[in-house]
């Protein structure tokens, strides 16, 4: 006679609950579609240009390499895409924004002295705030420069600022929040 194993009733109930809420549903085949662009409206990337000036000289690159050498994370492309997406939302019809980023230091830092198991972990502490230096030019629909300048974006209290949700797991969440805090002022106060 074969010995049969059974599932514990509590485990079975938990599996049923997960299945009922869609927790075991297959992942969607495609990511969310790109945002629609109205006819005659310029694509967001055409309205916002982001240029990295000597990225190999950025504070982050000097300390950890242009790509995070410990975790293989390329931070330049995601930050550029995020800035284009967010800035395009605030621009008026026909306006353009040109941004040149001259330095980046991502939030957090590595502490190799903690040992081999933690050598590749980026620690989020107040002593490692996100920083970004940039210059920008806001151009009106008639080609006139509406606003231009340089900014040193900093958030020294990034861990206590409440700028991100505690459930957010994006490794660049604090750096993106820095961009949001700058753009939130609106085009007239960049």
Chain-wise SSE layout:
Elements: H1 9-20, H2 44-47, E1 48-52, H3 59-64, E2 67-68, E3 73-74, H4 76-90, E4 96-105, E5 109-110, E6 122-123, E7 131-139, E8 145-154, H5 173-183
Helix pairs in contact: 4-5
Explain what the structure shows.
This protein is of the alpha+beta class. The protein has one domain (41-189). The protein has five helices and eight strands, in the order ααβαββαβββββα. The protein has helices spanning 9-20, 44-47, 59-64, 76-90, 173-183, and strands at 48-52, 67-68, 73-74, 96-105, 109-110, 122-123, 131-139, 145-154. The strands form three sheets. Strands 1-4-7-8 form a four-stranded mixed beta sheet. β2 and β3 (73-74) form a beta hairpin. α4 packs parallel to α5. The longest helix has 15 residues, at 76-90. The termini are far apart.
Short overview:
The protein is an alpha+beta fold and 190 residues long. The chain has helices at 9-20, 44-47, 59-64, 76-90, 173-183, and strands at 48-52, 67-68, 73-74, 96-105, 109-110, 122-123, 131-139, 145-154. The strands form three sheets. It has a four-stranded mixed β-sheet. Strands 2-3 form a two-stranded antiparallel ribbon.
């Amino acid at each position: 006679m074969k010995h049969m194993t059974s599932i514990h009733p509590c485990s079975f109930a938990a599996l049923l609950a997960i299945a009922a809420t869609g927790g075991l549903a297959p992942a969607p085949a495609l990511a969310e579609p790109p945002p629609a662009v109205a006819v005659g409206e310029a694509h967001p990337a055409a309205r916002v240009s982001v240029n990295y000036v000597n990225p190999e000289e950025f504070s982050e690159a000097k300390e950890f390499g242009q790509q995070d050498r410990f975790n293989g994370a390329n931070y330049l492309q995601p930050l550029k895409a995020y800035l284009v997406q967010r800035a395009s939302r605030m621009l008026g019809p026909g306006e353009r924004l040109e941004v040149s980023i001259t330095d980046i230091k991502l939030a957090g830092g590595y502490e190799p002295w903690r040992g081999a198991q933690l050598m590749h972990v980026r620690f989020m502490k107040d002593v490692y705030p996100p920083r970004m230096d940039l210059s920008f030019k806001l151009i009106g629909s008639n080609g006139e420069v509406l606003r231009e300048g340089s900014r040193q974006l900093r958030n020294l209290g990034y861990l206590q600022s409440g700028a991100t949700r505690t459930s957010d797991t994006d490794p660049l969440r604090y750096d993106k929040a820095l961009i949001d805090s700058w753009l939130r002022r609106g085009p007239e106060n960049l």
